[in-house]
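User
New here, help please:
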Amino acid sequence: MTRNKIHNITKECQSLESELSKYKLCASLIPEKSFYANLRKVLTKKKWDLIRNFVYERDSYKCSICGRSGVKLEAHENWKYGYINSIQKLHDIKSLCRMCHLNKHLGLASILAREDKLDYTKIVEHWCKTNNEELTKFGDYEEKVYKLWYLRNKFDWKIVDKNNKEIFKDLNYNGLIESIKQIGK
């Protein structure tokens, strides 16, 4: 891509991110090349369990978005995108209830719904309730989410942790734990 094209796509991505940031619950569709590129796949089950259990405790055993407690929690990796250098950086790991997690992975939720494994209307209802939005707003929101995903797919992302270490080359487990602990302070 030319510098000018990168600049234009970056501005469009940042504009969409700004518009979407007004929502408490907002999808964060990762670029297609990053599918299945996550800590759970890199770490041993024991190490991943230690991380996610630390996150659950840090988040007081409740969903960090909608606040539900007494439900099964799932650990969700939040990423930040540096468009100029094509850096996809692990920003945080949060405790989410299943409905918020499926909303974060709206593309996966859509696939599960098409396979009759999920009622998509429940995903939409949870989004509306959590964001205090009317059902009529969801279509415009969803369109922006997918447009941002489409634009992010134009980059060849380098996936790094908070210490700028490539996750699939030289992940420092102890450094990762320390960076997650710092988030809660």
Q: What stands out?
A: Strands lie at 73-82, 87-97, 158-160. The chain has one domain: 3-180.
